[in-house]
């Protein structure tokens, strides 16, 4: 990390749901923002700068929507910044916000990830027809299904691996009051019998389309120390990284992309992590389709190539396993696209602060937040810890 | 703060419609050119950042395709802003300040030609009270120009003089789109486009792009004989709702100028993101520029206005004049949103 240490002292989330018809767009952001400020014991007047991330403007049909939120976010006379890096966007956004403090440019930064997906049909927005390119007409699931099949072919993973991941994440979501899906009657059979959408991805193995926002308040070391002194434990940022690669390149492996490996190596190096399986206590991983849990376990270095599915089957990634993954319910239970990355980052912070409520992992000291986007080509990650780096 | 400089620049020849090239094909040669000029190995950049707009491209995630233009293989540390490239430069500058990077490649581009730009920009308004009225960018600018004229900030004659000066200055700019102008007296005889704005008061609709390379400290000195050092950089927003704003001033520019240290030394030139002629007197006043400061020697956006690039081009135009030794200290301004809502100010200096 750079000159200044960075602390997460506030996390605020909306209740995620299919349609938030009761609030305006700036109202949605304010709901998350004021919860984060309350957590941080601050007001908007304390904030030096605001960094906002969301997926394409077309999802709500407003060009650069944050410009019309300036008054609602108390940003008149302040810097307001907009990041856009595909599905990883609000992970990237938190990293940009963190950089503003790490560099010494600002002391207290508010960062927000949001999406009101009910304004449009995101699946078709992800299936646009590009001139001279093959049209997918199948959304993100249709794009990723062939790579999942390739993963299964390479690893010989049992065909119910995805079912187990979906069941685990949706059951974890029952412990998270903010999660979109609360499926009390979910069972192994109900997941397995759900409609096959894009073989091998079933309906219950697919992320929902959600409305919602998350906000984080980041401060410098003095701010983190002050929060700790008042009994409000901060999450210290131990490392941040993003990596990108092209959608198409000769030799590119879309099952375990190099950019994901490089990003993990970079963030672990910064955080002093040499054995992630041993040193990371809890992971919030971007798993929009169930099979991505074992795929990312391998890509991130938690398991040898071809063996990630064994961790899922052995219960290692369950809340009572030794590497709990997506205790919040993950993207499989909540997916406002432009917030999903930062929700991973924020949930990682909540875990090491001991503030994750019913889905808290006892004694979590070090956590990884992970996001990806595009054609599995954009990555954003951070490692947060209960201890100062 | 670390010393960070612009060490190389490149831009397209700006045109009304780049019909034969898509965005990737338009920006790729510019990126190639700036990499060659910088002397940094193609795979040697610590960070890459870009700026563009999906609404101009007419497709979500349009920037993904443009990543092909930087040959991001092996994978690179990279990010993107849905803003003018000047803010991509700001993100890269912050990244270098964190110590995670010593060099950065920054680019931005926009093709406005496929759509009806003033109508497209009407979507950049509050969705509840303003967007349903479909106010075009020219309509909103006209409201601001009228307010500025009534406040005595400018006049239709002064605006015509600015248009004439900008487009005749652009005759010396090989990248400019408009490089000549009728005399101001003739301009004043034209019909209104949106009273009090005439066509000459508006920046042209342009396709184009720009790229720069940033480097820190000794790395910059080793790669560039006279780096353009970023001595101060800051950006601020004003409110959005027109009825809450005094459109005749720009408080956000004044704050950013103070934070960037504009007044800490003499300013020789200013490249201002003036999408309309009346922006120049508003910005001059908010920046505290004296009458002796030359504004937009390149012709400015009134001579070429590629959306998402025109702000970063202002930094390029100041940097180029520092690289050449022509000037020692200048200010660059970039704007986003309607009626100068969001503004970035950078002070660039040459050494010695």
CATH architecture label of the largest domain in chain A: 3-Layer(aba) Sandwich
Strand order of the main beta sheet of chain B, please?
Answer: 3-2-4-7-1-8-12-11-9-10
Q: What is the second-level CATH architecture of the largest domain in chain B?
A: 3-Layer(aba) Sandwich
Tell me the strand percentage band of chain B: 15-25%
- The number of domains of chain A is 2
The termini of chain A sit apart by 9 Å
As laid out across the biggest beta sheet of chain A, the strand order is: 3-2-4-7-1-8-11-10-9
Number of helices of chain B: 12
Domain Thiolase C-terminal (chain A): 253-383
InterPro entries (chain A): Thiolase, Thiolase-like, Thiolase_C_2
GO molecular function, one term (chain A): acyltransferase activity, transferring groups other than amino-acyl groups
Pfam family, one (chain A): Thiolase_C_1
Could you please describe the fold and organization of this structure?
The complex is a heterodimer of chains A (389) and B (352). Chain A is an alpha/beta fold and 389 residues long. Helices cover 34% and strands 17% of the residues of chain A. Chain A has helices at 25-40, 89-102, 122-125, 139-155, 161-173, 188-192, 221-229, 258-271, 276-279, 292-299, 308-313, 330-333, 337-353; strands at residues 7-13, 49-53, 80-83, 108-116, 196-198, 201-202, 211-219, 235-244, 282-284, 366-373, 378-385. In chain A, the strands form two sheets. In chain A, strands 3-2-4-7-1-8-11-10-9 form a nine-stranded mixed beta sheet. In chain A, a hairpin with a 4-residue loop joins strand 10 and strand 11. In chain A, helix 2 (89-102) packs across helix 13 (337-353). Chain B has 352 residues and is α/β, with parallel strands linked by helices. Chain B has two domains: 4-113 and 205-228, Thiolase/Chalcone synthase (Peroxisomal Thiolase, Chain A, domain 1), CATH 3.40.47; 117-202 and 229-349, Peroxisomal Thiolase, Chain A, domain 1 (3-Layer(aba) Sandwich). Chain B has twelve helices and twelve strands. In chain B, strand 11 (329-336) and strand 12 (342-349) form a beta hairpin. The longest helix of chain B is centred in the first third of the chain and has 16 residues, at 23-38. Chains A and B meet through strand 3, helix 2, strand 8 and helix 8 of A and helix 3, strand 3, helix 4, strand 8 and helix 10 of B. Chain A: Residues 253-383 form the Thiolase C-terminal domain. Chain A: InterPro entries: Thiolase, Thiolase-like, Thiolase_C_2. Chain A: One of its GO terms (molecular function) is acyltransferase activity, transferring groups other than amino-acyl groups.
């Amino acid at each position: 990390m750079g000159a200044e240490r960075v602390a997460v002292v506030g996390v605020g989330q909306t209740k995620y749901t299919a349609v938030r018809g009761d609030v305006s767009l700036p109202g949605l952001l304010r709901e998350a923002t004021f919860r984060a400020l309350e957590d941080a014991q601050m007001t908007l007047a304390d904030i030096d700068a605001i960094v906002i991330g969301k997926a394409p403007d077309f999802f709500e049909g407003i060009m650069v929507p944050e410009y019309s939120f300036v008054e609602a976010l108390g940003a008149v006379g302040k810097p307001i910044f907009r990041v856009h890096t595909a599905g990883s966007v609000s992970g990237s956004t938190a990293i940009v916000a963190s950089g503003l403090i790490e560099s010494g440019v600002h002391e207290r930064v508010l960062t927000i990830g949001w999406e009101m997906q009910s304004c449009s049909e995101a699946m078709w927005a992800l299936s646009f027809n590009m001139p001279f390119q093959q049209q997918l007409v199948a959304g993100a699931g249709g794009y990723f299904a062939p790579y999942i099949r390739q993963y299964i072919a390479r690893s010989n993973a049992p065909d119910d691996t995805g079912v187990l991941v979906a069941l685990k994440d949706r059951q974890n979501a029952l412990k998270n009051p903010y999660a979109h899906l609360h499926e009390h009657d979910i069972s192994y059979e109900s997941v397995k019998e759900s409609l096959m959408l894009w073989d091998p991805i079933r309906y219950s193995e697919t992320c929902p389309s959600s409305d919602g926002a998350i906000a984080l308040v980041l401060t410098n070391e003095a701010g983190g120390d002050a929060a700790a002194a008042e009994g409000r434990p901060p999450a210290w940022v131990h490392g941040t990284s993003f990596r990108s690669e092209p959608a198409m390149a000769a030799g590119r492996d879309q099952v375990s992309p190099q950019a994901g490996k490089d990003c993990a190596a970079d963030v672990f190096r910064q955080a002093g992590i040499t054995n992630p399986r041993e040193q990371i206590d809890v992971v919030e991983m971007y798993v929009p389709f169930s099979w991505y849990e074992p795929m990312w376990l391998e890509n991130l270095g938690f398991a040898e190539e071809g063996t990630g599915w064994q961790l899922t089957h052995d219960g290692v990634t369950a809340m009572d396993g030794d590497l709990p993954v997506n205790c919040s319910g993950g993207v499989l239970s909540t997916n406002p696209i432009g917030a999903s990355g930062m929700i991973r980052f924020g949930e990682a912070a909540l875990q090491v602060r001991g503030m994750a409520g019913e889905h808290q992992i006892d004694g979590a000291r070090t956590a990884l937040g992970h996001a990806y986007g595009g054609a599995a080509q954009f990555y954003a990650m951070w490692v947060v810890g209960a201890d100062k780096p | 703060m670390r010393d960070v400089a612009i060490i190389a620049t490149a831009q397209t020849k700006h045109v009304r419609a780049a019909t034969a090239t898509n965005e990737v094909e338009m920006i790729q040669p510019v990126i190639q050119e700036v990499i060659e000029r910088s002397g940094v190995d193609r795979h040697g950049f610590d960070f890459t950042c870009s700026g563009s707009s999906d609404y101009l491209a007419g497709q979500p995630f349009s920037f993904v395709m443009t990543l092909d233009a930087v040959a991001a293989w092996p994978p690179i540390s990279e990010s993107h802003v849905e803003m003018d490239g000047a803010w991509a430069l700001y993100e890269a500058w912050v990244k270098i300040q964190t110590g995670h990077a010593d060099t950065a490649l920054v680019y931005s581009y926009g093709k406005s030609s496929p759509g009806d730009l003033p109508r497209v920009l009407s979507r950049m308004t509050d969705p509840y009270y303003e967007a349903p009225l479909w106010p075009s960018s020219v309509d909103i600018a006209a409201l601001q120009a009228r307010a500025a004229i009534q406040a005595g900030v400018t006049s239709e004659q002064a605006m015509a003089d600015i248009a004439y000066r900008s487009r005749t200055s652009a005759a010396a700019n090989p990248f400019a789109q408009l490089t000549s102008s009728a005399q101001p007296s003739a301009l004043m005889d034209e019909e209104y486009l949106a009273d009090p704005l005439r066509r000459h008061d508006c920046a042209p609709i342009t396709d184009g792009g720009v790229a720069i390379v940033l480097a820190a400290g000794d790395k910059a000195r080793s790669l560039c004989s006279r780096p353009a050092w970023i001595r101060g950089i800051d950006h601020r927003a004003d409110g959005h709702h027109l009825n809450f704003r005094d459109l005749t001033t720009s408080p956000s520019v004044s704050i950013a100028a103070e934070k960037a240290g504009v007044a800490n030394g003499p300013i020789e030139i200013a490249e201002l993101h003036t999408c309309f002629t009346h922006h120049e007197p508003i910005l001059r006043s908010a920046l505290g520029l004296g009458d002796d400061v030359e504004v937009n020697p390149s012709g400015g956006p009134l001579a070429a206005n590629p959306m998402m690039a025109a702000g970063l081009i202002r930094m390029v135009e100041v940097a180029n004049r520092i690289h050449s030794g022509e000037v020692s200290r200048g200010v660059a301004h970039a704007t986003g949103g309607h009626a100068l809502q969001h503004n970035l100010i950078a002070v660039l200096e040459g050494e010695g």
